[in-house]
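Hi V.,

Quick status before I head out on leave. The structure for the redesign project is tokenized and pasted below; the design run finished overnight.
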């Protein structure tokens, strides 16, 4: 389940409300386009501005729409341990195949505090857990030593690594058993992470270019390094365009331009600056999407 191209799915809105029909369509579209698994309610899914009711509803809709045709890894992280447990238990109860757990944000807990946070959650659910390390958003980094400790817990089996630190990524893969999986949490680093022993990527870009992201990972895994490298460079400028502003504003704007879904985001996220929209359109055109 924790391999290949996993899409960090956007949450489509319409007039401030969940666009449930569009959400179902996106799931079906990813099934048809070789995406390996789907993560609803992650950072790209604007989990921070979903109510608890909406959060649970998104996961229910995605699980039902997937109908076991593709694994669903539900984002259930929080800076409140009890809240994470409740969200995770709900995801498990409605049929999610695994969960994605971000490092507690804002609180800035110690390494021991982070360990205990994930340990308690692990003890309260049975499905596999993928950790998510992204200090640029949370304010605290999980060290390679901490991740090694966590990898020994019963159902913590993978990590989405978005530290941007290749040395740390290498240390994690070296320290942990082969059964513990590391995936890139940064589209720009997918190929380097694969070369170090990573198994794939949790991708923002897969929201608009699912086949190419999937094909790059598959090419590398089949030993076709030339093709993987070609796709890496082909995707490169598009990846940069997806981060002209804070994710998920550019990706949702791109999806609207391409007619996939509305680009609507929730405050405090805000519509993309016009100058950046023009840069985004150029990147989409050069790629051949428009």
């Amino acid at each position: 389940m924790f391999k290949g191209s996993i899409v960090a799915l956007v949450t489509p809105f319409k007039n401030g409300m969940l666009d449930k029909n569009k959400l179902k369509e996106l799931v079906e579209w990813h099934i048809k386009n070789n995406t390996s698994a789907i993560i609803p309610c992650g950072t790209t899914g604007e989990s921070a501005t979903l109510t608890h009711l909406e959060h649970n509803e998104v996961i229910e809709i995605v699980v039902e729409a997937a109908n076991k045709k593709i694994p669903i890894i539900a984002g259930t992280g929080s800076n409140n341990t009890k809240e994470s447990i409740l969200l995770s238990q709900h995801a498990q109860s409605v049929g999610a195949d695994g969960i994605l757990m971000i490092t507690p944000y804002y609180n800035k807990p110690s390494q021991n505090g982070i360990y205990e946070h994930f340990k308690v959650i692990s003890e309260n659910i049975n499905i596999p857990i993928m950790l998510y390390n992204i200090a640029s958003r949370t304010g605290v980094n999980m060290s390679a030593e901490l991740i090694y400790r966590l990898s020994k817990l019963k159902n913590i089996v993978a990590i989405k690594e978005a530290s941007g630190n290749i040395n740390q990524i290498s240390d994690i893969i070296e320290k942990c058993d082969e059964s513990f999986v590391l995936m890139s949490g940064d589209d720009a680093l997918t190929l380097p992470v694969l070369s170090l022993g990573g198994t794939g990527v949790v991708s923002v870009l897969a929201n608009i270019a699912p086949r190419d992201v999937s094909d790059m990972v598959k090419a590398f895994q089949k030993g076709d390094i030339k093709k993987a490298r070609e796709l890496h460079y082909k995707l490169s400028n598009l990846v940069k365009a997806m981060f002209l502003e804070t994710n998920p504003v550019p990706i949702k704007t791109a999806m609207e331009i391409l007619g996939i879904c509305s680009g609507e985001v929730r405050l405090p996220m805000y519509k993309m600056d016009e100058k950046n929209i023009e840069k985004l359109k150029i990147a989409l055109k050069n790629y051949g999407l428009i």
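Above is the designed sequence. The first strand starts at residue 4 and ends at 8.

G. will cover questions while I'm gone.

Best,
W.
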